[in-house]
Amino acid sequence: MDYLLETYVKDSSLFPPSMWCHPETGNKKTTKVCERFHREFGEYFYTSHPDIFKFLDVVTAFQAKVYMKILATARPVVATKRIKQLQKKVDKLKQLFDEGKLEVREYVHEMAMRYQPVNV
Q1: Which keywords does this chain's UniProt record carry (predicted)?
Q2: What is the pLDDT of residues 66-114, one digit of tens each?
Q3: Neighbour count for residue 21 (Cβ, 10 Å)
């Protein structure tokens, strides 16, 4: 348990919570990036061995789609009312933990409940 605290939970840790669980970063983390790319890229083809012209058309279209996603994420994230409420609750939990009013298990459980996975 000390390893988790020293590595991920405390502000002075190697990977502090602000790095991996901050709702305002807008990051949609996934562990299956390669599989997702392969699936999305494969959806453009209707045969297993397309000709070179079809392949180049698909690569160009896919590149345009990726550029649009990149440009869309470049906009600043506006903190919604829900994000502000979530941040207040997280700050309160952190304060209680720092004051010793929350055990490690309770703190981790409550933080996990605040950050449910987001479907993309």
Answers
A1: Transferase
A2: 888 888 777 776 778 887 888 888 889 889 988 999 888 888 888 887 7
A3: 18
- What number of CA atoms fall less than 13 Å from residue 82's CA on the CB side? 3
Q: What pLDDT is stored for residue 41 in this prediction?
A: 82
Q: Distance between CA 17 and CA 79 in Å, rounded?
A: 18
Measured CA to CA, the distance from residue 25 to residue 21 in angstroms comes to 9
DSSP for 56-94, written as a single string: HHHHHHHHHHHHHHHHHHTSPPP--HHHHHHHHHHHHHH
d(CA 90, CA 107): 10
User: Interior CA angle at 109 toward 117 and 9, to 5°?
Assistant: 90
Residue type, 62: F
Distance of CA 118 to the CA centre of its chain: 8
